[in-house]
Amino acid sequence: MENLKQKEARAQEQIDALQEEYGSNLESDAELQRLKQLKKNHQTEYENKKKEVAALEKKAKNKQKAEEKVSRERAKLDELVKKRNLIEERLNSTEPLDDLNEREAELRQQNAEDQAIIDATDTSPSDRQAAEARVEERNEELARLQTQIAE
User: Fold this and answer.
1) pLDDT of residue 75
2) Taking the C-alpha atoms of 15, 17, 21 and 23 in order, what is their torsion angle to the nearest 10 degrees?
3) Which of 8, 57, 59, 149 has CB 3.0 to 4.6 Å from 42, enough for a Cys bridge?
């Protein structure tokens, strides 16, 4: 664009120089008209290039904004995928509720049987101690199961 501006200025200088040198000579009038037309063409081309540059700058700015928006939306999407994957992982890692409830019922039944052994008067001390240890272990497992069921 700067080049066009310089061409336009040179054409104007030539016009001014010819007017000074030849005055109103017929040949110089033709050259003068040619140079004026050349100047007008350069001016028009300069204006067109100026508009084209402005349009390209605007397009570049819009492209940058679009890329930034895409980046933000991609980050949101990645976050949603991450959350979904965590939920799926959590669902896959836990046992179905029915299985948990069934296991809880089994443990309670086994505890009731061992409690009967503990409460019986004719149980040997070693059997009573073993039953108490089993009840204690099952109670710990029951606490973990109840936590999972609550979730």
Assistant:
1) 92
2) 30
3) 8
